[in-house]
Amino acid sequence: MENRLRQIANLGQAVWLDNISRELLNTGRLRELVNEGVTGMTSNPAIFQKAIADGAEYDDQLRELVNGEEKSTYELYEALAFRDIADAADQLRSVYEETDGRDGFVSIEVDPKLAHDTEQSIAEARRICQTIDRPNVMIKIPATEAGAPAVRALIGEGINVNATLIFSIGTYEKIVQAYLDGLRSMHKAGKSIHRVASVASFFVSRVDTQIDKVLTERIEAGDSGLATLRGQAAIANAKIAYDRYKAVFESDQFADLRAAGARAQRPLWASTSTKNPAYPDTKYVDTLIGPNTVNTLPPATLDALRDHGIVARTLDLDVEESYAVVERLETAGINLKTFTDRLLTDGVRLFAEAFEKMIADLETKRAKFG
């Protein structure tokens, strides 16, 4: 019997690992996971901060760097991170080739401080791509107002993009349009668009964390009718996003690009660890399985899926009920957009803070080795 990762793959969903570390790469653990069915990786500043600051696996390289050519602390970070990304891309390269460039990607984020600067984000993405020089690297661009035109420009240049920190349907639609515009620009220039790849990282569990907090306060104040809405907003939001995905990429709107060899921009479910211990630990996996999607899982959630996840095509079930959930929240005075806008702002801030903490931790280690 096939393992759960292979079963999910048979339903059209790719499972990626939301983690990266030198230990994972050097011990052969990533290769084991790839052999089992993991087909990609994502990273973010918080993940790199933990990997570099808490582990000793980077110390030898860092010691060499500190005692070698003079580098800024930011340059030290890049030397460490780019090596990890390149190694991960090399270990996933076989997946990339076997799937004709559909899968096998590893993502790295531009400096979070550039989240509101379109031109600098574009320039940084180009530089990262040229430096790492692997075809299966994706550049993560936050889905801010400045991020959407950056996505459009980078896709137009054939740079793979992971548009991240998407919480709302409106933001998702802007990112989809940016992808389409970028592809059309590249195609119009006479370039092949077949291996241009992009995912739209739609964050899930954080939506429930925020909405449930308000619902619980209202319920405790006596509004017991809202109890059935707890734990429903995030999945409803994601299912509506997938409905919008199908409306674009399975329609005539994408027909010209499809005929030219383009691939759809897959929704990627991010923030899929369960924050509320009252919910199943695979809540945001089991409920969001469907064709042409990706789910990126932190290690504990991946282990839970491998052990007891429920594998079935669930993403396009009860879609009308998902719209009804959002309507009931609106009727109760809970405007989803208000929360998702705040989550995007908070997400950018938290990544920037994690990045700054990582730089500070590296500065401390630098002093120790220098």
3D architecture notes:
This protein is of the alpha/beta class and 370 residues long. The protein has a single domain (4-204, 241-311, 345-369), classed as Aldolase class I (TIM Barrel). It is built from 16 helices and eight strands. The protein has an eight-stranded parallel β-sheet with strand order 2-1-8-7-6-5-4-3. Helix 13 (283-286) links the parallel strand 7 and strand 8. Helix 7 packs across helix 8 and helix 9 (169-188) runs parallel beside helix 11. The chain is globular. The termini are far apart.
Question: Key terms for this structure?
Answer:
56% helix; 16 helices; TIM Barrel; 8 strands; 370 residues; alpha/beta; eight-stranded parallel beta sheet
Given the structure, what is the number of helices? Answer: 16
CATH superfamily: Aldolase class I
Sheet of most strands: 8 strands, parallel
Q: Give the H and E element order.
A: HEHHEHHHEHEHEHEHHHEHEHHH
What does the average pLDDT come to?
Answer: 95
How far apart, in Å, are the first and last alpha carbons? 54 Å
Shape: globular
Low-confidence stretches: none
- Report the CATH architecture: Alpha-Beta Barrel
The top-level CATH class is: Alpha Beta
Q: Work out the helicity level.
A: 55-70%
**Quaternary state, please?**
single chain
CA-based gyration radius: 20 Å
Number of domains: 1
The fraction of residues assigned to DSSP E strands is 5-15%
Structural class: alpha/beta
CATH topology: TIM Barrel
* Count of individual beta strands: 8
Going across the biggest sheet, name each strand in turn. Answer: 2-1-8-7-6-5-4-3
